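Before going further, learn to read the protein records used in this course. Taken together, the tokens spell out the fold as the letters spell out the chain. A record is reproduced here so that you can trace the correspondence yourselves:

***
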Amino acid sequence: MAQAATAAPKGALEMMIQYFKDFGVLKDNPREYWAIQIINFLDSTAYFAFLGIGIVFFTTNVGMGDISAGYVVTAMTISVTLSLLVSGAITDSLGIKKSLLLAIGIQTVSRIGVTVFGLWEGAPARTILVAAFFILSAPGLAMTITVFQSANRRFSTKRSRSASFSLWYLIMNMGGVVAGYVVIDGVRLTWDLNNSWIFGIGAACGILSLITATLLLRREDLILDAVEQDEEGALTQKGEDAKPPEKRPGVLHILQTVIKQDAFWRLMALMGAVLGVRAVFTYMYLLMPKYWIRVIGEDVAMGALQAVNPICIVVGIVLTIPIVGRFNVFKMLVFGAVISSFSLVVLMLPWGWFGAEMATGYFRMSIAMLVVLSIGEILWSPKLSEYCAAIAPKGMEGSYLGMSMLPWFLAKTTVGLMSGHMLLQWCPEGIGERIASGELSFWETPEAMWFVLFIWAIAGPAGAWLFRGWLTRGADLDPEKKAA
């Protein structure tokens, strides 16, 4: 028994050591992969700051009400999802470099426009122009998502692919940390500047990304799936398989091919099953910024709170990837989704459990909620990406990822359109004083809002588990089978 008790920790330590050794295979990847990761960091920093401050920017700096601001942010996010339906096929058709330059260029123009009209208070039709430039970013954001997925696969070998996707996800979340602590809190609290400058910093990130893509993305048609390693680790090409395709298929042909494949529709169903859980991340920018300001105070360290999730992801992925890879992909996905769902239960607890003062209590409660949410995300989110990447045929990765966003479009539309109404119902201006006075019942407080959203979130993984036989039919999700 004593030997058995010490064997498990040793095995875990060996897996952890091997995990870091596995990153050594990244030397297989060409310069283009590392260029993508530089752009990934810059774009993630700009994106998380852009989204994290949006709802506050429109109410504080542009003068919109909660409902109008919610509509504008929702228009942008659902436009992203609609764009994803075709952006993947466009990426597969145009190629990575052209698609990336187009995507980053659109986003940069959008951020410059928001910055200019956000600062120019006397501009004619200012509100309309700011909203229009904000929404303009949508097709660029969508195409960037599909470019990154395609590039990570294109610019990695089979031996380095797992480590390549892991590093991409880590860098993306590092950008989220910088966006919260440095960009949002730096502009709002440290330098006491207009929130418009957050978009200005995002524009600067876009310009740097364009320069990086222009200088470092050279070999567009690398096909590293056609690379083999000999016993010494040297790379060799596999004859005719190494040749790039002579002609890229058209967008319509790609879309028609995808919708005829059974694997795609199983992916669509699985994406639909986790909508309630994924929607929690829309609350991060639609509900929580105003929620934090109204129950904690105007000087709340909003960027620090928004950075909790990416910090946990960075640490958690490093610690858990050697372990979670041993479990069935579907089971781990459902288990993680349940944990993320229960993060909303934390926000339903009495704030007095977390601190003597209301502001302190709600701040600590928010941190606890974000930690629980992140623990679940570490388990389910990579598994969803792994499943998508695994079933997509070569050359159609972007199309699969993009078109599978249709259920997500429906969820974001619903949540977005209701966000302003939910804030007015359960978290209006002055709610903090009324909570402190103790005059409100549960159904009149923000806790009731989180309860309603929790019911939706938990229903998804429960339904997925109930229909697990159909959802996993034809998919090789068992680690033992993969090893065999």
In short: The first strand starts at residue 227 and ends at 229. The radius of gyration is 23 Å. Residues 169 and 223 are 22 Å apart (CA to CA).
